[in-house]
Amino acid sequence: MCLGIPGELVEFGKDDAELAVVEISGVRRRINVGLLADEGLKPGDWVLVHVGFALSKISEDEAQAVLDALKELGQQYEEELDALRASDVG
């Protein structure tokens, strides 16, 4: 199962403007933010991440609500976090 997971933007890549670092439930991962180039993203913004790509900008309240719901999935959520730890977009 693949889930869209909210991540908070931490920093942007120095060499590639389409890459950024997000933190998702304590896991930092580099993702591609190119699909949201016109959103004016900045550190502290929240995005919905799926398979290494930021798909949409979301509010912090929406991010927390989604994270709370995902945590209720238990094992499926933990498996998604494990997959996130093992992957990187680069």
From TrEMBL:
Keyword tRNA processing attributed: no
SUPFAM superfamilies listed in its UniProt record: HupF/HypC-like
A Gene Ontology biological process term: protein maturation
Gene3D superfamilies: 2.30.30.140
GO molecular function: carbon dioxide binding; iron ion binding
InterPro entries membership: Hydrogenase_HupF/HypC
Coiled-coil parts of chain: 60-87
Keywords from the named record: Coiled coil
Pfam families: HupF_HypC
Family in the record: Belongs to the HupF/HypC family.
Xref: PANTHER family: HYDROGENASE MATURATION FACTOR HYBG
Name of the protein: Hydrogenase expression/formation protein HypC
Organism: Nonomuraea maritima
